[in-house]
Design goal:
330 residues; alpha+beta; six-stranded mixed sheet; three-stranded antiparallel sheet; 12 helices; 11 strands
Length: 330
């Protein structure tokens, strides 16, 4: 039996499942030798640990920050990266059509909670979110996953918080209008619950696809990004394509402990502060903003999507009123 096959059989019983309890390479070598058949050098074992940790199918993963190894968990159901209203019969969700309904409901609730947390986080940090919902209704085509973001984040030419109405900079607004430049930046955001080596490329390129009309794209994960190979892969793609990647550090258990979505969105300041204190924000890479919108692509979206029309109408009202206001569906 090859060394790699032996390690694939041995390592799952030796590696801790929690990255926080990761085991150092030296100790892992010592424990592995007790079960190995054959005489292999430390260098050979370390090499195999390193190579296997970059393989999504292998049981070993290396921690993002540190020197230890842990057991890579089995891939989560595709639902962990789905839209809350996407039909279970579409795309990669087919394997869940026979799943236990309680499990499906629990996962859906986590998705809704995460979107509520992300919305509030950006609101209190001076960004104005606009949510696409109808694009992911039950009868929507699966191709919408590659056309529409969950959120559009608007950064106006003014500081402050979307919790309050704010006057726009009149001089800069007039100046940019004369130059044909938008007085805001629009970033399209894709939200995902669980990052993994199996799915991160799809997550990333969906984010890139849904943000091509905007000035930037942002991929936001709920769970921590603890796998070194995963973090490196995301950084490399971000360096090439400019998509920002952020983790909110919320495990499944942490999401389960949060209030219901409506309570998160309508929480009092002290409650909001307590919710935000649970986050462990880790910015893997920052988004690169392009100077201009793709007006042709945005016009095409308006013709196809009532929500895109609402987005444009909201931005227009803010400009006409010289005030940045949170979106309110009328």
């Amino acid at each position: 039996m090859s060394l790699r096959q032996q390690l694939s059989d041995i390592l799952p019983t030796l590696l801790p499942g929690n990255p926080a309890d990761s085991i150092k390479g030296t100790e892992l070598i010592r424990l592995t030798r007790l079960q190995l058949t054959g005489n292999y050098s430390d260098a050979s074992l370390r090499y195999h640990f390193s190579i296997m940790s970059c393989d999504p199918a292998s049981p070993i993963a290396k921690v993002e920050k540190g020197q230890g190894y842990y057991r890579r968990s089995a891939p989560l159901p595709a639902l962990s990266g789905a839209q809350e209203l996407l039909a279970l019969t579409q795309g990669r969700l087919e394997d869940l059509t026979t799943a236990d309904q309680d499990v499906v409901d629990e996962t859906m609730l986590r998705i809704r909670k995460f979107r509520a947390v992300v919305t509030r986080y950006f609101e209190i940090n001076g960004r104005f979110p606009f949510a696409f919902r109808q694009a992911f209704a039950k009868d929507s085509p699966i191709s919408n996953l590659w056309k529409y973001p969950e959120l559009v984040l608007v950064d106006w030419e003014t500081g402050g918080s979307p919790d309050e109405e704010m006057s726009l900079d009149e001089t800069m607004l007039a100046f940019k209008q004369r130059l044909g430049i938008a007085p805001f930046r629009l970033h399209a955001a894709r939200l995902r619950i669980q990052p993994s080596l199996q799915t991160y490329r799809e997550d990333f390129f969906q984010t890139l696809a849904v943000s091509m009309w905007a000035q930037g794209g942002e991929l936001v994960y709920a769970a921590p990004i603890e796998d070194e190979a995963l973090a490196d892969g995301l950084r490399k793609m971000s360096a090439n394509f400019g998509v920002g990647v952020t983790s909110f550090g919320l495990t499944a258990d942490a999401l389960d402990e949060l209030p219901r979505p409506a309570n998160i969105l309508n929480a009092h300041p002290r409650e909001t502060e307590a919710i935000m204190a649970k986050l462990d924000i880790n910015r893997i890479s920052g988004a690169v903003s392009r100077p201009h919108l793709d007006w042709t692509a945005l016009s095409s979206m308006r013709n196809e999507s009532e929500e895109a029309e609402k987005l444009v109408g909201w931005l227009t009202r803010c400009i006409d009123g010289r005030r940045a206001e949170a979106f309110k569906d009328e």
